[in-house]
Amino acid sequence: MIDRRAAALLFKQLLYIGIGLIIIFYQLLPLRTTPPTWVGPDLLMAITIVYAIRRPAYIPIGSVALLFLFSDFILHRPPGLMSLFMVISCEWLKRRSQHLRVATFGVEWLTIALVIIMQAMGSHFLLTLTMAPPPPAGLSAMQTVGTILLYPVLTGLAHHLLGIHKSPTDDDSILRYRL
Amino acid sequence: MPQDLRQSDEFTRPLRRILQAVIILCLLGVFMVWRIDSPRVERFRSHVIDRVMPSFTWAMAPVMAITELALNFQSYQNLYEQNQELRRELQQMKSWKEAALQLEQENARLLDLNKVRLDPDLTRVTGVVLADSGSPFRQSVLLNVGARDGILDGWATMDGLGLVGRISGVGAKSSRVILLTDASSRIPASIEPSGQSVLIVGDNTLAPPIDFIENPELVRPGDRIVSSGDGKVFPPGLLIGQVAKDPGGRLRVRLAADYERLKFLRVLRSKSRRDVDGPGTLVAPRHTSGRLTGAAAGVLND
Fold first, then answer.
1. Which residues of B touch A136 (CB under 8 A)?
2. Which of A17-21, B56-60, B137-141, B184-188 is predicted most confidently?
């Protein structure tokens, strides 16, 4: 029995990586080569945060680190920067996913909003500190706000279409992130 | 069974903590190495892209086709207006064609008089755009030609009409072109007919601003901008675009290359090229005396 559950868990973990690779792949399509006047939300970041709160066991630290490091390299971002912040915030959120389970959605949303804003400010600070040119402030602020606004949409979709309700309880010990 | 799991928790918790710390430190290390030895990490990056991207292309073609079909479908709705507009433009084009033919004949006569021989070094390689940068903050495209086609860092890239960007990052089978619109792009250019040397500074907009104009009074909107060949960045005389004035009164370039559709790009081979093989060589002063030290020698002797 434990084998079957472990296999299911592994499948779900691989599914996350698959979703991530598809998102990166779609971003790479040369559909628009002119500079944008507006920036959409960071879908990969939003989905990862939804995972971290709703199904923390499906995104082990290794897959978050590798996926974001890969996207840093391939999307021509400063390597390691976004993956660093994503790993820190995912681990922080995973540890709190039990508390967020009993909290209202407003609290949950506020928490992830703070996390996303801290990430944007942190990477801006670190880039300035190491004298690397940070991305244009207006565009990255737009992306931050977009990602925060995308979060309720994604959780709503997960809730109504996929039936993923709350973070798993103590009883679903195999689903629960253990630390 | 849950008890077992909870007991194993006790043992794995410190291990997880250590794993977290190690991964976080590793990622921080990658970032710091990138800041310290950027060219090496960028070479690694182009190596990674070189490995991954060609295997993506088979999947990209159908997805691109479907997405473009959907985008084109929207434009069918105003087909009639477009048709009218095209007819009007065609009328204008006919008069321009006459002018161009006359100019071509005149140009041929003048070249003949001068016995000008065009630079045979300036041959080109044509590549197909594989992917864009994938991030809204970076303006670059990936070409399907690389080191095996003889592409080198720093070469100029054009579409049919004008300059598009500069090769930066070459893998074996792919190379990256930093577009003129990227925020890190700085291209020395000159404005015709006044002949002033300026710098085209990319700022992540479609019309990059013109910087370091000595005499703005001599520059008028509509003047041609060509690459100047200063600092051996590009061969001189490549068309970049026209001067335009934005509502704020700032002079910008209206680029000649069609950035909406970058599909086939020409990479110009050029001999006069400056290597960047270390972080120090970028800011090295040009010594007039014979003694050069370190990595700067490689750049200045070429």
1. 137, 183, 204
2. A17-21
Answer whether A67 touches B (CB < 8 Å).
no
d(CA A68, CA A82): 7
* Contact across the interface for B131 and A62, Cβ inside 8 Å: no
Q: What is the residue-averaged pLDDT of chain B?
A: 81
**Residue in chain B lying closest to A29 (CA):** B131
A75/B133 CB distance under 8 A: yes
Q: Do B259 and A83 touch (CB under 8 A)?
A: no
Count CB-CB contacts under 10 A for residue A159.
15
Alpha carbons A90 and A103: distance in angstroms, whole number: 18
Which residues on chain A are in Cβ contact (under 8 Å) with B139?
A: 33, 35
CATH architecture of B124-268: Beta Barrel (2.40)
